[in-house]
Amino acid sequence: MEGTAVQRRLTWQAATVTAAIQETPSVRTIELAVPDWPGHRAGQHLDVRLTAEDGYTAERSYSIASAPGEPVAITVERLEDGEVSPYLTEELRIGDQLELRGPVGGYFVWEAAVGGPLLLVAGGSGIVPLRAIIRERQRSGSDVAVCLLYSARTLADVIYRPELDSYGDSDGDRIVVSYTLTRAQPPGWTGYAGRVNAALLGEVAWPADKEPLAFVCGPTSFVETVAEGLVGLGYPPGRVKTERFGGTGGP
Ligand SMILES: Cc1cc2nc3c(=O)[nH]c(=O)nc-3n(C[C@H](O)[C@H](O)[C@H](O)COP(=O)(O)OP(=O)(O)OC[C@H]3O[C@@H](n4cnc5c(N)ncnc54)[C@H](O)[C@@H]3O)c2cc1C
Which listed residue, of 50, 86, 152, 169, carries a Cα 20 to 30 Å from 200's Cα? Predict the structure, then answer.
């Protein structure tokens, strides 16, 4: 039985696009029907493979945006000079097929038994697996306290904003959502401005003596800055889980 599930994870299979949701001008969520999906855990990713008519293939990893039990979904940000993301965000249509393999990863995962409190720090599309973690918290009925710090370029670039705001509104002070906008802030903006640094982490993050578990995700340089900052605040490195999306740009 287990052997079959492992085989399904490692084998490329055809998935059909069932929905496409425009999250921001450059970001799209793609829901997929995957007939042989073995199930996933919050925080895992999958691999997508595209094959051109001449047989050229390109593979990329995407975090799974949905909680376990929900339809498989990925959320893709278009990189202007990218090879794969412009196709996924602009050309792929409902009913189209693509190949995928997964779920992948057993380290950057959360389930209710893992507990908290949770510190979630996202840069840009790094919010994707953290959103799956919050959805899993809600789905499982966990009351673990969550502090989310999300760095985006502008307010228009914040992915899943209505959903994230609803968590803060509906769950009192058990889920605290903070945004920092790095490029521009709208008039009257009461959130944070500028890149995440040690000072901002010191203000927003749980103190280390609460023994929080941190999940940090985004562009590689963002993740490294945040992880160093948290260790500087006294977080044991083993309590800072990181997922690097590649690239050098920060949100
Ligand atoms: C485990 C994992 C999970 C990921 N999850 C997601 C996700 O949920 N959503 C998502 O949109 N992307 C995610 N990514 C990034 C994704 O795999 C691709 O790298 C991204 O879509 C760019 O692919 P591309 O073919 O369009 O660009 P490429 O043609 O591969 O690259 C174009 C240019 O952009 C730079 N670049 C590549 N990746 C990034 C990046 N992330 N940020 C800034 N610059 C970059 C490259 O250095 C290059 O200069 C994830 C990556 C990993 C490793």
Answer: 169
